[in-house]
TrEMBL record, chains A, B:
Lineage: superkingdom: Bacteria
Keyword DNA-binding recorded: yes
Entry keyword annotation includes DNA-binding: yes
Keywords: DNA-binding, Phosphoprotein
GO molecular function, one term: DNA binding
Gene3D superfamilies documented for this protein: 3.40.50.2300, Winged helix-like DNA-binding domain superfamily/Winged helix DNA-binding domain
Species of origin: Rhizobium lentis
Pfam families the UniProt entry points to: Response_reg (PF00072)
Domain Response regulatory: 2-123
Any one of the GO BP annotations: regulation of DNA-templated transcription
Protein name, entry field: Response regulator transcription factor
Modified residues (4-aspartylphosphate): 54
Length: 240, 240
DNA sequence: AAACAAGCTGCGGGTTTACGCAAGACGGCG
DNA sequence: CGCCGTCTTGCGTAAACCCGCAGCTTGTTT
């Protein structure tokens, strides 16, 4: 059995290496990559079936890498090992995991024991292991209550990118009014009004900008999500 | 000699601990804190004069902590040890360092050797040690060319928070038109137009939102800067 | 089939933004 | 002192944004 580790930080990488050795005696080879790009390449070359991967990496982040890896071989088992449980990450991962694939999401703050258990569960038993904290987010995020629909999230990303209503309409194939409808819906859910008007007339917020701010503060968006969205946007722009 | 380490990540913390021991034989005590709040408290209790600190921490980030520590005892020597050289961090640090204080900014990607050297330079020789990469940013950031004035940065933060022109005017004691002037200035510097109109009429951006996006992508803003700004805003709002 | 909820769309109007134009205000400089 | 560059402010306009109202198209429920 072979395990591929994809992780930026040398300290964390060697820690993972040890953890893998300790948890999986049946594993005879461990290979390492220090960024997403290298990770993809190694996964392809070695036909890796077992991967442990960080989400936040400079060159090409974990979600990007995982997507292309899973596209090539959907049965690959991936354990995401991340510092954060940003809703943006959780949503990003949920979007790309293939049907029936075994994967895991464990926080770096988890104990050695938990990490080892997760390694065995996923790689040996093919079971999904999602950190409790992440699980909670996932439920409320994908469930309708208090969560955001895909279309709501989509428009959130669009205004975060700085598109005008008109541009969004064109991009998503909607009328201007529909875009604005969705915006209102979004403003509602993000509670932009509460913080906005308050009592006085003066403390007003710019709804559109404020929505993005709140989304950021709530980690519904983060840098990596923005980066990804920006890349998609450019792609779309080039395709006229 | 006593050294205080303030760092989230246990692995990095113990690495730092070892590095300090190796680099500073004259150091007899090392104490550790795992977040900014605890760091402040320990610094106060122990009257720490030598601190190594991460910037990105969950509970209270390094900049916040450093500010209050320096406020109480400006001669404290602090070495910032960070993963990133976001312009937002660099600017944040430059703002709070007291006149003549010895401090350092070293990236986590630096070699053991560099870290040890920095430790000795700052704590023993009272010299400032700024990572080359960070230094570059600092120069161009604070120098006028291609850098952002304080007033430009200020208004960038304000729109990133989602304030309206009117609210900004009130907050900063300016007229509406002046606020809009500064916005235009900002749009210019951020090159919002280039990406905006391009050729066609359709691909238009919402300048205000786009400026924030670009600032984020360029790491002129980041989560921690936003968080800080939001806290200041709330404070201002409460003070009517 | 009728009833209903949910989403898309056009219309209209009130507000906010973006910005050109031009008139002061302030600080250096020859 | 007068000249000049930078910053501020008011006026005015065109565009973009926010949103209530109402008519339509769906898919779902009873």
């Amino acid at each position: 059995m072979k395990v591929l580790i994809v992780e930026d930080d040398p300290l964390h990488r060697s820690y993972l290496h040890e953890a893998v050795n300790a948890a999986l005696p049946e594993c005879d080879t461990v290979i390492e990559a220090e960024n997403g790009t290298a990770g993809e390449k190694l996964a392809r070359d070695h036909k890796s079936a077992h991967i442990v991967m960080d989400l936040q990496m400079a060159s090409r982040n974990g979600i990007e890498a995982a997507r292309t890896i899973w596209k090539e071989r959907p049965e690959t088992r991936i354990l995401f090992w991340s510092n954060y449980s940003d809703e943006a990450y959780v949503r990003g991962v949920s979007r790309i995991v293939p049907d029936g694939a075994a994967y895991g999401y464990v926080l770096k703050s988890a104990s050695d024991e938990r990490l080892k258990l997760a390694l065995r569960s996923i790689f040996i038993e093919s079971q999904c292991v999602i950190d409790r904290e992440v699980r909670g987010l996932q439920q409320k995020s994908l469930g309708q209550t208090n969560g955001f629909t895909d279309s709501e999230y989509e428009i959130l990303v669009d205004i975060a990118l700085g598109l005008t209503d008109r541009a969004i309409a064109k991009r998503r194939g909607l009328s201007l009014r529909s875009v604005q409808n969705r915006l209102q819906q979004l403003y509602d859910k993000l509670d932009v009004y509460q913080t906005a008007g308050d009592d006085h007339e003066d403390g007003r917020f710019n709804l559109r900008a404020r929505a993005v701010t709140i989304a950021f503060l709530r980690k519904l968006l983060n840098y990596s999500a923005l980066e990804r969205a920006e890349a998609e946007l450019q792609e779309w722009l080039d395709g006229k």
